[in-house]
């Protein structure tokens, strides 16, 4: 048989590459950013989307957002997706925010507050129960819940419940929780910066470790933009001297399950 007709078996690496190429959606390479089986929704921040699996906020899972201080940019970070969902008629549920939500600021971010439902619950156990009930519902667009005292076993329960939902689930916890284990597939460490900037570091995702924090500047509501000169910032303890989406100077609302439009 001529040498040109001799069969040469492929090398192991070639065989592996050929095998993997036949099932691109079934396998994930450790050196590539993974993607979720469930749909993702763009965060509205192109630089952030490039670092998120699926190029957006994943549905049907927990996304853990760790902040060094409440009220320092949570709503501005999520405003693009909340605007999109609320204007599509999807309900946005705010569960146990630590301070009174400042409705005019949300309106100026483009969020339809007619679609925002505010639920207050003081006891940690009641909060967990309420989150599970929401996750069992298919009618919500996004759930934002503040669970500063949640343990890993609590989060595992919620992650299992989130798998059966179709909405986006964001869990806010203190930055110190980054040292704790968490079943959340996506964890971001967020910190307010000068001139309205937000530093976002991806500390857990399906894929390679993020090389550096992402610096973004989400839209500032006009009511804040007019007072940006009053912003006092330090890397360890940012503080604000003007009304923002969550105003720590105002008392908690007492009504549970209130539509935010009634509080505007």
Q: Overview of this structure, please?
A:
It holds the Pfam family SulA. InterPro entries: Cell_div_suppressor_SulA (IPR004596), ImuA_translesion (IPR047610), P-loop_NTPase (IPR027417). With 264 residues, this protein is α/β, with parallel strands linked by helices. The protein has one domain: 3-Layer(aba) Sandwich (Rossmann fold). It contains seven helices and 13 strands. The protein has helices spanning 12-21, 46-49, 74-87, 103-108, 124-135, 152-162, 222-225; strands at residues 40-41, 57-58, 62-67, 91-95, 100-101, 116-119, 140-146, 168-174, 186-192, 198-204, 214-216, 246-247, 258-259. The protein has a nine-stranded mixed beta sheet with strand order 11-10-9-3-8-7-4-6-13, with helices on both faces. Strands 1-2 form a two-stranded antiparallel sheet. Strands 5-12 form a two-stranded antiparallel ribbon. A hairpin with a 5-residue loop joins β9 (186-192) and β10. The longest helix has 14 residues, at 74-87. The chain starts with 11 loop residues before the first helix and ends in a 5-residue tail after the last strand. The model is unreliable at 23-34, 229-244 and 247-256 (pLDDT under 50).
Give the arrangement of secondary structure elements.
Layout: H1 12-21, E1 40-41, H2 46-49, E2 57-58, E3 62-67, H3 74-87, E4 91-95, E5 100-101, H4 103-108, E6 116-119, H5 124-135, E7 140-146, H6 152-162, E8 168-174, E9 186-192, E10 198-204, E11 214-216, H7 222-225, E12 246-247, E13 258-259
Parallel strand pairs: 3-8, 3-9, 4-6, 4-7, 7-8
Antiparallel strand pairs: 1-2, 5-12, 6-13, 9-10, 10-11
Helix pairs in contact: 5-6
């Amino acid at each position: 048989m001529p040498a040109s007709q001799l069969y040469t078996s492929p090398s192991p690496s070639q065989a592996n590459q050929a095998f993997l190429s036949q099932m691109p959606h079934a396998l994930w390479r450790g050196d590539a950013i993974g993607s979720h089986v469930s749909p993702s929704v763009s965060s509205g921040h192109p630089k952030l989307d490039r670092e998120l699996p699926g190029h957006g906020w994943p549905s049907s899972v927990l996304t853990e957002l760790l902040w060094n201080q409440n009220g320092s940019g949570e709503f501005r970070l999520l405003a693009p997706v909340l605007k999109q969902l609320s204007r599509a008629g999807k309900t946005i549920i705010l569960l146990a925010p630590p301070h009174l939500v400042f409705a005019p600021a949300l309106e100026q971010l483009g969020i339809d507050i007619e679609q925002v439902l505010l639920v207050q619950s003081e006891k940690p156990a009641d909060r967990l129960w309420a989150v599970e009930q929401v996750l069992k519902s298919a009618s919500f667009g996004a759930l934002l819940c503040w669970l500063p005292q949640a343990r890993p076993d609590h989060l595992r329960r919620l992650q299992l419940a989130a798998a059966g939902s179709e909405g986006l689930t964001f869990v806010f916890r203190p930055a110190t929780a980054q040292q704790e284990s968490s079943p959340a597939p996506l964890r971001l460490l967020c910190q307010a910066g000068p001139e309205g900037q937000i530093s976002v570091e991806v500390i857990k995702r399906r894929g390679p470790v993020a090389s550096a924090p992402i610096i973004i500047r989400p839209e500032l509501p006009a009511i804040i933009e007019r007072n940006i000169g009053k912003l006092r910032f330090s890397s360890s303890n940012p503080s604000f001297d003007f009304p923002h989406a969550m105003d720590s100077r105002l008392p908690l609302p007492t009504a549970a399950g209130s539509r935010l439009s009634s509080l505007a």
